Amino acid sequence: MRTHYNTEVSENDIGKEVRLCGWVNSRRDHGGVIFIDLRDKTGLVQLVCDPKDNEEAWKIADSIRDEFVLIASGKVRYRGEGLENPNLKTGKIEIIVQNLTIENKSLPMPFDLGDEKVNEEIRLKYRYLELRTKKSLDIFKLRSKASIAARNALDKLGFLEVETPILTKSTPEGARDYLVPSRVHNGEFYALPQSPQLFKQLLMVGGFDKYFQIAKCFRDEDLRADRQPEFTQIDVEMSFCDQEDIMKVAENLLFNIFKACQKEIPTSFDRITYNEAMEKYGSDKPDLRYDLSMVDVIDIFEKSSNEIFTSIAKDKRRNRIKALKVPNGDNIFSKRQMKGFEEYVRKFGAKGLGYFQMKEDGLKGPLTKFFTQEDLTELINICDLKVGDVVFFGAGDKKIVLDYMGRFRIYLAEMMNIIPQDVFKFIWVVDFPMFEVEEGKVKALHHPFTMPKDFNQDIEDISSIAYDIVLNGVELGGGSIRIHKEEIQNKIFKLLGISDEEANQKFGFLLEALKFGAPPHGGFAIGFDRLIMLLSKSESIRDVIAFPKTQKAQCLLTNAPSEVDNEQLKELGLRVRKITTTEQ
């Protein structure tokens, strides 16, 4: 229907006849001559409808409104000296319309397509209209390039792309499953996969050696800006490998994706252990684009005359006292802001927030009276304080202190506007704990098929061969070396309190497969949506998914989820019972 896309027309085509298609981006009537900015996926071109050139085309143009779909034929001409538009790729030329067809009309737009401040509910209800914007189109061009680059990079490394089932068995993997009732097997359910974890391990048992998939995954969990109930991940697994082999593949993959998207990143990434990340940054996904880090000062506070601090310092295994230095903070923060900081950390379980200010004559602040001059000098040295610096202190339970001080670090960096926006800072976080203990119950931190490093320690000190890829403070992905030996897997199940019967019921097909010569194997998965969100500098993961759900997991476009009729329920052997507020 067209001879060119809009921005393919240039000065080289002056005098030629062209046929273009697209939407009316804007229409202007200048003294009887109508100008139309026609938009297609490549951009804008100006159409000129003058009754002197073609009266019929001009009459049609007179009835045109924004977002009408047009097919326009005409001759390319130079706009003229002083009439060029430097903001357009086609700004030196225009099309003198000879023939104009309204292929389809449009209702008035429910919102201004150029207004990025429109209520999100309206944008999601009319998502297909928002997709017409240049911002959305650019995001999905980027997403397509990244997807193709990922496939090409992994193909070059000898990986096979294999699709795994969407209807599968419900297994405990951390979040709630989305369940699908079976009509044929009444009273039984499929589950949508939270990840292809078990199947990709079975492919290794099957001798596929290197697998990948750009996989759809589903998790019924509470949502936030970087989560969706259905999401996409680049899923990778390989045999006869160690952690180093897998990291090299992941780095190669990301390097090629970023290169295809015209972004430069290093070919290998720095590493930090889980414990170091938590102790220095209060997070297992630290943002290292800026330098604020915590220092352990529990030994100094143990010598203070404050009973609260000395009591906390007695149990160095369970408690922490952390210092966070802010260079020149004394000249940045007002007294009112300093008081507000304590209110901020209290929201995350802090009982208080101490601070010292570094003055010309030494440390000043409400806490100095509890320390000797020698101890204060030691604090200055260990925190590397200079005149004008402020140092904040958090004290108490290890888990709580690391959490709120880590959040406070980010809060301060954002407040001081010290986070560079055009930097991609990758870091590997390695040596994750194998288990976490909550309310006396042992749980696998990643999943129960992760290979432990060593059993000869207390259960909370056992680390795993697991690793996360972190980019700018966002967990981009992660993985582990898997357990491929039955005796190790059985030992892990026992530590988790999973009986042989329960293990066979939930994972029997995998456990049986591991008995048939399973090779050593491991892999990783990268959150593709999160990756595109960071690459495109989008504020929400919803911006990079064509038809996303809200934070309540609703699709405002299709009104899903929705009720189904009784006949469908009857076929499935189901009845709906409304859950009361108390039961929730």
Folded structure, characterized:
Helix content is 29%, strand content 25%. With 584 residues, it is an alpha+beta fold. The strands form five sheets. The chain has an eight-stranded mixed β-sheet with strand order 6-9-10-22-21-20-17-11, sandwiched between helices. Strand 7 (178-181) and strand 8 form a beta hairpin. It is globular, with a radius of gyration of 30 Å. The relative contact order is 0.10.
What topology does this entry show?
Blueprint: E1 17-30, E2 33-40, E3 43-49, H1 55-62, E4 69-78, E5 93-104, H2 120-125, H3 127-130, H4 134-156, E6 160-161, E7 178-181, E8 189-192, H5 197-205, E9 210-218, E10 230-239, H6 243-260, E11 270-273, H7 274-281, E12 294-296, H8 298-302, H9 307-313, E13 319-326, H10 335-346, E14 354-359, E15 362-364, H11 373-383, E16 390-397, H12 398-416, E17 426-430, E18 435-438, E19 441-444, E20 466-471, E21 474-481, H13 486-495, H14 500-513, E22 521-527, H15 528-535, H16 566-572
Parallel strand pairs: 3-5, 6-9, 11-17
Antiparallel strand pairs: 1-2, 1-4, 2-3, 4-5, 7-8, 9-10, 10-22, 12-13, 13-16, 14-15, 14-16, 17-20, 18-19, 20-21, 21-22
Helix pairs in contact: 4-6, 7-12, 10-12
